[in-house]
Each structure stands twice: as C-alpha cells, then as structure tokens.
UniProtKB/TrEMBL annotation:
UniProt protein name: Beta-ketoacyl-ACP synthase
Record keywords: Acyltransferase, Transferase
Lineage: Bacteria, Bacillati, Cyanobacteriota, Cyanophyceae, Leptolyngbyales
InterPro entries: Beta-ketoacyl_synthase, Ketoacyl_synth_C, Ketoacyl_synth_N, PKS_Beta-ketoAc_synthase_dom, Thiolase-like
Organism: Stenomitos frigidus AS-A4
EC number: 2.3.1.179
Length: 393
C-alpha cells in the first residue's frame, strides 16, 4: 500500500515548521550561549524558549500542528500513534529527585522545581510523549513509543510506515519529541568530551562537538487512497526504511561503517531504488569527530556526488528527535524543490557535495540518515511521487 505524508508538526529553537524552514534557508542558527542551571557554566544550547520546555507540553503542541497541517481534527479514534523519545521524561525525574533531596535536607526549594510527591511518579513514564499524543488525538488504536537513542525518530516513522503499508491502519501519527536540557544530560555529554564550546559545525575541520537542543517533529502518515479521497495535500511518499545495529560498542560507531552501510542498502532495496536515483541526503551530521568521519566515509562510498547537508548547525542536536526533524526537512525539500544548507560548515574536511547555500534542485528521491548510541543505524527514503525517481540539476 502506498504511504504518504499529509501533515507535519515541528518545533525547534528556530520556531515552527514554516519559521524553522525560512530561517534555515537564511542560514540562521537557534544556538545561543545559555545558562539554564546556575551550577553549570554557560554553554551553547538550542532552547525553544528562555528555559527548558516540558516534554508533554511540547508534544501536544507539535501533535496539534501536525493535525492542523493535515486538515484533521480530534477525536481520531482509529489513528495509531508511534511517537518516541530517547530521553523520555528524564527532566521530570531529575526535578522530582532534586525536590525530594531539598525537602529531606530542609533546603530552600527553587521555585522552578515542584514539591516532591511520590504519587506523581506515573507522570514521569518514559513513554510520556506517546501517551500525550494519544490523549490529544483521543485514539483507541495502537500506541507505540520506540526508543533507539538518536535513531529514535526515523525508527518511529519506519514503524508508522509499516502500520499503514500493511493495512493495519489508514492513519498514523509518527515522530519523536525531545526535551533533553537537564543537568544530568549536560554533565554526561561534557564528561564524554562530546559537547561543543562555541557552536555546531557539522563536517567542518574546526568542529568541536554537538550542541544539545530541544524540539521534535510528528508526521501524519496516511494511505494514499484515503489522502486522495479527502483531497489532502501530500508532502511526499515514504518508499522504504532500513534499520540495523553494529553490535560493536555502546557509544563508538563501528569502524568502516559496515552495518550503517547495510542499513542504507536495505533501505534502497526495500524502496526499489538504487544509489543513482537519490537526489539529496540529509545527514545525521552531529559535528562530533567520530560520527562525521564515519558518516562521511559511508556517503563517499555509496553516494560520492549526491548533495548532502546536516541541519544541526541551525537546530542543534535534538537527540532522539533529530531524525524526525531531518525527515521533515527532507519533505520540505521535496515540496519546494530546494535543498537546505549545511549551516555552520565553513571549511569542509571531507570531499562531499555539501550544500553550502540554499540550492534549487529538481529532486524526486531523498534519503534521511540517523545513527545512535549502541550502534543504532537508520535510513529512510522519501519521494515526491510513488514512482522510482531520477534527479538532475
């Protein structure tokens, strides 16, 4: 069954879907020096507001935007939900733990932290984003909450795609939301030496590391026949996905990228595409030393001439939500026939066809890549039409 995308909800440090796309094309970045926690020195972050956003609030905002974009209104009783998050409600766990510690030590509680109440633990479940989406949509259908590190967003879309493709549901909301700006997350990435000091510079010789960000994207997936019957606008078609694991290391990608390449080849085979039909690649591009080197190697191996960009120099790295945001940018590229630039890239270290400025480009098939801790590899192919497509200048 042909599966199409009829709606996109997105929130990033640059704004909503349309605001983010416009500012991305202008080469703007939502990354700023921030100090959300007084015990941490200022560092580059990509916050949506002045303070870290709550997961459930952000989820419902993005879900509402997706439904509005698709011309749908709740209740949607038979709409399945596949919304993931690599961190889940970790921020709430940390807030509750700090509140309890402050109460037990008779410290003055910061006004931004709630009083500790052990009865609230159920509001901090790791699948809170999926639950919040299901409650907003008022569905009684399947609700799934994948968690696969930074590959979560693409894994969620791939699962949603399968639910529609196999005829189980005609409509699915799929994507990922992340609100990872917490003391523990900041400390963890700093301890690993993966955090940038000034900003995100994907694939650049002077890249310093990743910049944590909050945000997310949810796509409305529908059977093409259903979308046509209700005259819904179509961003693009999902052609196939590939998912593999390295089985190598908890945080270091497999040297040579054997299983990452296998995920891409799996995606192309399932999508009935070959490398020559791909017109654009949205790279994971975290601006860390190992990821960019390994990803550049696999792109050089399979797609040496294809235009490539990473948008994390503009949005920051939203961890589990980054693939869903990348998928949204791929669909916007198909809609506008315009390739987004690799913001933050000034001096490329690798011989790839990087998109340095917004680039009008006739393209039918595009590829979105994500790679996560634990050796999670994900690739998904979108196209402007269900037919196999060629791309050319």
């Amino acid at each position: 069954m042909d599966v199409v995308v009829t709606g996109i909800g997105l929130a990033s440090a640059l704004g909503s879907l349309d605001e983010t796309w416009k500012r991305l094309l202008a080469g703007e970045s939502g990354i700023q020096q921030q100090q959300p926690f007084p015990t941490f020195a200022p560092c580059p972050l990509a916050l949506i507001g002045n303070q870290p956003t709550a997961l459930v609030e952000l989820t419902q905002r993005v879900a509402a935007a997706a439904l509005k974009d698709a011309g749908l209104l709740p209740p949607l009783n038979d709409c399945a939900i596949v919304v993931g998050s690599s961190r889940g409600n970790q921020a709430e766990w940390e807030r509750l733990i700090r509140a309890r510690w402050e109460q037990e030590t008779a410290r003055v509680t910061d006004a931004s932290y709630p009083s500790f109440n052990p009865l609230n633990w159920h509001e901090t479940l790791p699948h809170a984003a999926a639950i919040a989406t299901a409650q907003y949509v008022q569905t009684t259908a399947s609700v799934q909450a994948p968690m696969a590190a930074c590959a979560t967003g693409l894994w969620a879309i791939a699962q949603g795609f399968e639910l529609v493709r196999t005829g189980r549901y005609e409509c699915v909301l799929a994507g990922a939301i992340e609100t990872p700006i917490t003391p523990l997350t900041l400390a963890g990435f700093a301890q690993m030496g993966a955090s940038a000091r000034t900003g995100a510079h994907p694939f650049d010789r002077r890249r310093e590391g990743l910049v944590l960000a909050e945000g997310g994207a949810i796509l409305v997936l529908e059977a093409a026949d259903r979308a046509t019957q209700r005259n819904a606008p179509i961003y693009g078609h999902i052609l196939g996905a590939g998912l593999t694991a390295d089985g190598y290391h908890v945080s270091t990608p497999e040297p040579g990228g054997r299983m990452a390449i296998a995920a891409i080849q799996q995606c192309l085979q399932r999508a009935n595409l070959d490398a020559a039909t791909i017109g654009y690649i949205h790279a994971h591009g975290t601006a860390t030393t190992l990821n960019d080197r390994n990803e550049a190697h696999l792109i050089q191996t399979l797609f040496p001439e294809v235009p490539v960009s990473s948008t994390k120099g503009a949005t920051g790295h939203t961890l589990g939500a980054s693939g869903a945001i990348g998928a949204a940018f791929c669909l916007m590229a198909l809609k506008h026939q315009l390739l987004p630039p690799c913001v933050g890239l000034k001096q490329p270290e690798f011989s790839l066809n990087f998109v340095m400025q917004p680039q009008p480009y006739f393209v039918n098939a595009v590829l979105c890549l994500s790679f996560g801790f634990g050796g999670q590899n994900a690739a998904i192919a979108f196209a402007a039409s269900a037919r196999d497509g060629d791309s050319a200048n």
